[in-house]
């Protein structure tokens, strides 16, 4: 079934050189024709190479939702970003590879209540069936989720379920029974997310202005995170360790765990 009217697929404006550099950034050769298997390889490679991070906010750098600016940041400068940047740019890569992509708005749950509209950006990718793809939510599914699936969907990070919510055709996305976000199925343009992106990067009420975070899936299936001045590592079995870092140790940890070279420590709350 099709939940939303489709629009012309506007993504894929990357040049051949940008696409090649992007695939090199995520250490993946040309993936071949669009397919669920190739899409899963692209998503996993991205999650293992590009961190979820909000460091620009705490470094005084602008967050610009423009494809060329995102290529310069994520691909050329080998940085990461948060949902609008990561999923916005990943849509460009997928479109340039022949995928039909739509940008969807979601409301992230805070306890039992979903947040404001445009709180999060996720992707719909249409192949023989529609898929939910998300490389910008931190710890989330490692592979695409069936957007029309209503049963449990097993993933390396847990069991996902998509449940109808409300009278507008929205879906609640649950991980191990806990709501993650409420997903709308109307397609949007990247520019539609700019007002909320601005709020997320400037408001004292935004979680992104309150603290720094940089987190990425590791090659063995664990996770490495720097939150403020703490380095948190999690093994695939869920064992967690935490270390408090000096400024010099933090700069070294950004390089070692995320390949991010900084000349100063982001000034988030400690």
In short:
By secondary structure, the chain is of the alpha+beta class.
Descriptive notes:
The chain is an alpha+beta fold and about 270 residues long. The protein is about 30% helix and about 30% strand. The protein has helices spanning about 15-25, 35-50, 55-60, 65-75, 85-95, 195-200, 205-210, 245-260, and strands at about 50-55, 100-110, 115, 120-125, 130-135, 145, 155, 160-165, 170-175, 180-190, 215, 225, 230-235, 240-245. Strands 2, 3, 4, 5, 6, 7, 8, 9 and 10 form a 9-stranded antiparallel β-sheet that branches. A hairpin with a 2-residue loop joins strand 12 (about 225) and strand 13 (about 230-235). Helix 1 runs parallel beside helix 4 and helix 4 (about 65-75) crosses helix 5 (about 85-95). The radius of gyration is 18 Å and the shape is globular.
């Amino acid at each position: 079934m099709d939940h939303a009217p489709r629009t012309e697929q506007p993504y894929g404006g990357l040049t051949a050189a940008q696409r090649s550099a992007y695939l090199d950034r995520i250490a993946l050769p040309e993936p071949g024709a669009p397919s669920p298997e190739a899409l899963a390889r692209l998503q996993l490679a991205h999650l293992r190479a590009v961190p979820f991070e909000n460091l620009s906010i705490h470094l005084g750098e602008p967050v610009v939702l423009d494809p060329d600016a995102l290529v310069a940041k994520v691909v050329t400068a080998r940085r990461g970003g948060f949902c609008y940047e990561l999923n916005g740019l990943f849509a460009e890569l997928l479109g340039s590879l022949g995928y039909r992509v739509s940008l969807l708005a979601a409301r992230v749950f805070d306890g039992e209540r979903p947040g404001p509209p445009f709180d999060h950006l996720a992707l719909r990718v249409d192949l023989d069936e529609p898929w939910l793809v998300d490389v910008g939510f931190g710890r989330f599914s490692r592979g695409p989720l069936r957007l029309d699936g209503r049963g449990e969907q097993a993933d390396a990070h847990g069991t996902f379920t998509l449940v109808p919510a409300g009278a507008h055709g929205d879906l609640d996305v649950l991980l191990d029974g806990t709501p993650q976000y409420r997903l709308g199925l109307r397609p949007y343009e990247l520019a539609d997310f700019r007002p909320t992106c601005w709020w997320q990067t400037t408001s004292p009420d935004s979680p992104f202005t309150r603290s720094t975070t940089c987190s990425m899936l590791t090659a063995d299936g664990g996770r490495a995170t720097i939150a403020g001045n703490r380095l948190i590592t999690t093994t695939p079995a869920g064992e967690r360790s935490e270390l408090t870092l000096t400024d010099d140790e933090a700069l070294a940890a950004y390089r070692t765990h995320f390949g991010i070279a900084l000349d100063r420590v982001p000034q988030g709350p400690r």
